[in-house]
Design goal:
single chain; about 325 residues; alpha+beta; Beta-lactamase; 5-stranded antiparallel beta sheet; about 15% strand
Length: about 325
């Protein structure tokens, strides 16, 4: 912009500030402002080795997401720093049996509030049998079974038993699961049908959540921010699924997968020494016959966090 000398006159009380002095003052102020901005960027915006590693991780995951023959999303949370990475993290995907984590969290909330007791018993008959995963359906077809809520919770998670799950849904209430998820900030996490309800699925009443919401729920469990978090983790550690297969045996994993036609999901807490993290992934509308895409994605995530755990801030491998 060109300055017009005619627009500037000596200003009363300003010591006779004329045009040349005014220009010098403006130029000095501009230089000082620019220098301050540069120093601020250097102090607060300098790229670190860790930033480069996160960029690499996000690029690898972006490339992999594009390779999956279907719709795919993920979220990862660094439980040491709180840093989050995601791709399609706010998209609501069908969760299949991973929705059993919110059911489990609601069960323990109800126990903490005195509504239910884990040692309370339920007698199941042949009318309670539900198809799909789990062996409880076969047992109750031949004889009634009396189980505690704690035993049903274990069956729901470890064996992904649909019969146990539907009994627990009846106990805690579908609307209470959704209300608790809303209270915890999970507005897209919704339990809309019981297990194996094909008609509800045809109507589009799907049990759904987003990668970011499932990851945040897992992080809350890890931090003890939900009732019964310790026992919830113990139950989730009994699961052996895709994330468990992608991670070395020396590292503990607490997770819950889900799988229905066209869908593979998993939400996991990975107890990597020095750099524990949460990883969630969802693949839906998957092409028929393809392998579970969660396992390879979990392997990429583990490679990233293990590298962070083994190096110092300058990239020196010290462990």
């Amino acid at each position: 912009m060109r300055l017009d000398p005619g627009r500037f006159r000596d200003l009363p009380g300003q010591g006779g500030l004329g045009y040349p002095a005014y220009v010098n003052l403006i130029q000095s102020a501009a230089i000082f402002s620019l220098a301050s901005a540069v120093l601020a960027c250097a102090a607060h915006g300098q790229t670190s080795v860790e930033d480069l590693l996160w960029n690499r991780f996000e690029q690898r995951m972006s490339d992999y997401t594009s390779e999956v023959d279907g719709a795919f999303g993920y979220a990862a949370i660094d439980l040491t720093t709180g840093r989050v990475a995601s791709r399609n993290g706010d998209v609501a995907f069908a969760q299949a049996s991973a929705i059993k984590i919110p059911i489990l969290v609601t069960l323990f909330r109800d126990v903490s509030q005195g509504r239910l007791k884990l040692d309370g018993v339920v007698t199941l008959t042949a009318r309670d049998a539900v198809g799909g995963s789990g062996g409880l359906q076969d047992k109750i077809k031949t004889a009634n079974q009396t189980l505690t809520l704690r035993e049903l919770a274990l069956l729901m998670i470890r064996d992904s038993d649909n019969t146990a799950t539907n009994v627990l849904i009846a106990k805690v209430g579908m609307e209470r699961v959704n209300a608790l998820m809303t209270e915890l900030g999970m507005k897209s996490t919704r339990l809309r049908r019981v297990m194996m309800d094909a008609q509800a699925a045809l109507r589009g009443d799907e049990n759904a959540s987003t990668p970011l919401e499932m990851a945040r729920l897992a992080a809350m469990i890890h931090r003890g921010e939900v009732a019964g978090a310790g026992e919830i983790v113990s139950i989730l550690k009994t699961v052996k699924a895709a994330v468990r297969q992608a991670v070395p045996a020396r590292v503990e994993v607490a997770s819950k997968p889900g799988g229905i036609p066209g869908v593979n999901t998993e939400t996991a807490i990975v107890y990597l020494e020095g750099r524990p993290f949460v990883f969630t992934a969802a693949g839906t509308a998957l092409a028929e016959g393809i392998s579970n895409p969660v396992q390879r994605a979990a392997g990429i995530a583990f490679d990233h966090f293990e590298r962070l755990a083994r190096t110092n801030a300058y990239g020196h491998r010290v462990r």
